[in-house]
From TrEMBL:
EC number(s) given by UniProt: 4.2.1.3
The protein's required cofactors: [4Fe-4S] cluster
SUPFAM superfamilies: Aconitase iron-sulfur domain
Domain Aconitase/3-isopropylmalate dehydratase large subunit alpha/beta/alpha per the UniProt entry, residue ranges: 80-387
Keywords, in A-Z order: Iron, Iron-sulfur, Lyase, Metal-binding
Protein name as it appears in the record: aconitate hydratase
GO MF annotation: an example: metal ion binding
Organism expressing this protein natively: Polypedilum vanderplanki
Reactions it catalyzes: citrate = D-threo-isocitrate
Alphabetized Pfam families for the sequence: Aconitase (PF00330)
UniProt key word Ribosomal protein: no
Length: 389
């Protein structure tokens, strides 16, 4: 079957970065772009890049592009419209990710029995599995407690780890991060996140925004660095690994405006709990939350990631912070190469996905805007509470 032609190929543009030519789809071609929330722009780029009028149609692109007309303000029920979305990668942890690797191994066995080449069975979408859910605390309060717990971890999970080590060598397009490397979300943030992907196709190097789905509900933490990500079930994750798109309702986007500056005695925990309380009261289940306003510039990436990590607690699908200067500084701090950082910055600026939170002219349209003055945040305490008899 011949490959279907993308009807948006005329939007393809080139850009020279680090003395190398890259290609991308020019979102800035559309006048409506500046009205779209930055999180919706990621969905738009994915739809344009993957449009084949079969899995992703021009109608899908048009509906996302005209999101502002159907922004869920009561005039039109935006939630009636589903769109396909192809994330750039998949992240798994060992508790929920092992079944996916087992399924790929089973597919190889089936192909072998049918007389085919089993080595052709590999994830189509880049997939990372971080082993971090196996360790238990049997020893504590001693200097060698960690080593003792890790020894027991290897002893108890020898069969699983042996299988995963085989998988790391057998499958292409799959990275397995070994035990004791860190928590999956932290590894994702500090090491795995590309922010901007590069992909070689047809002899050209293409650029597009990083996005991820994971088999852990707190995959949303990655939104703190400007990578659109959320948790999904194991079947959906495997579908993405096999190159399929996932279906999601075109979401309402709540704009959460931060102004002012935090009191120096207030911690990021106080801020996170305040925002969580506000969004629970507002009701954001099934909606995107996007943060903007001059107050965002005072938040470190650690603060932003902590807020995004709490997304499942207040019910939102994502809690998104668009890439800004602080994000670029964080990439440098976590030892990304200068070449990679140049690619991220220049591509996002070319496609109007780079954010200056002090510039109100960049503020898009939101379904609803909620404002929080950071100077009003106070310390949070739990209890006291009498138990119910």
């Amino acid at each position: 079957m011949a490959e279907r032609t993308n009807p948006f190929n005329h939007l393809e543009k080139s850009i020279v970065i680090n003395e190398q030519t890259y290609y991308y789809y020019d979102l800035a071609h559309f006048d409506q772009l500046t009205k779209l929330p930055f999180s919706i722009r990621v969905l738009l780029e994915s739809a344009i890049r993957n449009c084949d009028n079969f899995h992703v149609s021009e109608g899908h692109v048009t509906r996302i592009l005209n999101w502002a007309q159907y922004k869920g303000d009561g005039s039109t029920d935006i939630n009636e419209y589903e769109i396909p979305f192809k994330p750039a990668r998949v992240i798994l942890q060992d508790f929920t990710g092992v079944p996916a690797v087992v399924d790929f191994a089973a597919m190889r066995d089936a192909v072998l029995k049918l007389g085919g080449d089993p080595e052709k069975i590999n994830p189509i979408c880049p997939s990372d599995l971080v082993i971090d859910h196996s360790i238990q605390v049997d020893y504590s309060s001693s200097s060698d407690a960690l080593l003792k717990n890790q020894d027991l971890e290897f002893e108890r999970n020898k069969e699983r780890f042996t299988f995963l080590k085989w998988g790391s060598k057998a499958f292409n397009n799959m990275l397995i991060v070994p035990p004791a490397s860190g928590i999956v979300h932290q590894v994702n943030l500090e090491y795995l996140a590309r922010v901007v992907f590069t992909e070689k196709k047809g002899g050209k190097e293409y650029l597009y925004p990083d996005s991820v789905v994971g088999t852990d509900s707190h995959t949303t933490m990655i939104n703190g660095i400007g990578v659109l990500g959320n948790g999904v079930g194991g079947v959906e994750a495997e579908a993405v690994m096999l190159g399929q798109s996932i279906s999601l309702l075109l979401p309402e986007v709540i704009g959460y405006k931060l102004v002012g500056e935090l009191n120096p005695y207030i911690t990021s925990t106080d801020l996170v709990l305040t925002i969580t309380k506000n969004l629970r009261q507002l009701g954001v289940v099934g909606k995107f939350v996007e943060f903007f306003g001059p107050g965002v510039t005072y938040l470190s990436i650690a603060d932003r990631a902590t807020i995004s990590n709490m997304c499942p607690e207040f019910g939102g699908t994502v809690a998104f912070f668009a890439v800004d200067r602080r994000s670029i500084d964080y990439l440098r701090q976590t030892n990304r190469s200068e070449e990679k950082i140049n690619i991220v910055e220049q591509y996002l600026k070319a496609t109007k996905q780079f954010r200056d939170y002090d510039d109100e002219s960049q503020d898009p349209i939101y379904t609803k805007v909620v404002t929080l003055d950071l100077s009003t945040v106070v310390s949070s305490l739990s209890g006291p509470k009498r138990p119910v008899m």
